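Can't attach files on this board, so I'm pasting raw text. These are the components:
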Amino acid sequence: MAAPAHFRRWRQKLQARALTLPTAVRLTIESTPSRFHLRGSWGGRIAACMKIRATSLFASVLIISGCEEKKELTVTETRPATTRDGTPKLSASSDERFRDAKPSPVRADTPAGWLALPASQFRLLNYRFGESGTGEVWVSIAQGSVLDNVNRWLEQFDAAPVDEAGLAELPSVTVAGSPGKWVTAEGDYAGGMGAPSKTGFALAGVVTSVGGQILTVKMIGPKDEVQAARPVLETFAKSLRLAE
Amino acid sequence: MEISETPPPAKAPRSIPGKIFDVLSGFGLATITLLLLGLLTWLATLEQIDNGLYPTLNKYFHWKALYLIPEINGKMVPLPLPGGYWVCAVLLLNLILGGIIRIKKGWNHVGNIISHFGIILMLAGGGVAHHFSERGNMAIVEGQSSDTAEDYFEYVVEVAEIKDGKPENIHVIRGKEINDLTRDRLRTFRLPDFPFDLQLTGYLPNTVPVSTSERAPNSGQRIADGYFLAEKPATIPPEPAEQFTAGCYARILQRDGTKSEPFILAGASFHPFTWREGDRIFTIDMHKRFWPMAFTVKLDKFTAAFHPGTMMASKFVSDITRIENGGEAKVTISMNEPMRYEGLTFFQASYGPPGAGPNQKLYSVFEVVKNPADKWPEYSLWIVAFGMLVTFMIKLVSYIASGSRKKSHV
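---
Top answer:
Structure tokens for the assembled complex are below.
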């Protein structure tokens, strides 16, 4: 079956311009003419659609061929120094760059399956755990007293606060050589910062006073994952030690 | 009796441009585009639950999205739909052609034309905001100042020379020039002002540097100075895109053709990479794009109030001092009372640190928006309301006038 005149002209132009097309595209174009000879009223419409498709395909090939990947660029954009720039730390090692390896007051062994993340201003040690990827564990130095921090955690789950007597009844776990209070809660977690609360979450953690400072180990995550990881957290908390 | 009938004059066939005009300005096209916009909005609302807000907005409404395949509950819906941006563009064209040019002119239609103009302004405002607006955030601790906002999403690579301990001549490689350098794609960035060039590759949009002593790298993984870039695990619900930390691998290309050892540039790093060339010192760093302001903002006081017994905010208020050219102005920014100044809008966005303890110093976070079409939606609503009022008044006057004519005939 002969190809329509306009398609033949188009193909001749294509060949004359010696455009190199991927094999798949060439095959599609070569096989298209037979489809233009559909008969009947619907056949005419389908054929018209096919013509549009072939034209679109050709246009796409031309556009894609124009999008050549840039191997080199000259950098011309500059900006003024700002208050954010400060004084950068020079010649920092990779450990300093990625772990902020300044003298950390605590050290611990990373449990299997946890992902150690860079420390931050408020997280001396920072981890992710659990299948959902939303489980977090971090170690911090906090302000206030043990009771203040226990009640702050409970408040984040809308749980009733405890008094000194209630605090004394909480289970005890040794952290960095000091007895700490084991705190658990579950429900909707509102971590502050105006963030929406997270439903079905749970808390497990320890608050202790070490050398006049409040040291906290906090695990937050989906309820099932926190429950499963509690023994690991306890072992982790026990492994915490103060840096020399 | 013979009745002779004169056939009605034959209508001249409509030309092809005329037919195209009829379609583009037709009520049918307006209906289709509005239905499509409703459908796209509904599907995007469902999809963002699984895929996150930012990627979904890009998928459905970015100008590069000519068409899209929706996904609900992680399953592809076999229904290709046009991109929302282009549906809005067609609706805009339709309103201009149909609602302004083709519509019957006259006093009776003045109100409709005004209302159509208001909707056109709103659609145009959306386009202007899409292409020209910038969004960032500025976090300031009580008692401190800042003159820089930080982009929410865009990671850049910056090269600077250090003089007297401070960065100078800071060159910026924008995100759009590096975020296609995934896997083995490689690009050389020429730095005519510096004695070296920079080569970047292996870009990952959400990654953390992991030490080989913490976790074994995958087979074939690049390792630089004992670290490799590990993709952060996908989370349920998805991690918001503004919390992503990008990273890539880099090398210094010296003018004599030698290459440095590869090193990692990461958004999740604390300090820049340092390069020395003779007596000159340079830093190379990756972080979210800094956006210098023309003025400084000092946070004097931050107040957060909560609904009783909850952590739900009832009120965040930041008392700030705006410092510019030696002059000072006191301004209060609260949740629904932003500060608008020099084309920028400062919204009270959030505060930190998360789970702040008693007596802990707080910081306030402002969303900084530069949007040339900031007030256009408000203006368009006023215009639409005025147009509808005019239409209503004309109808009312016509009705009263026709009523009084009827009475006068009795």
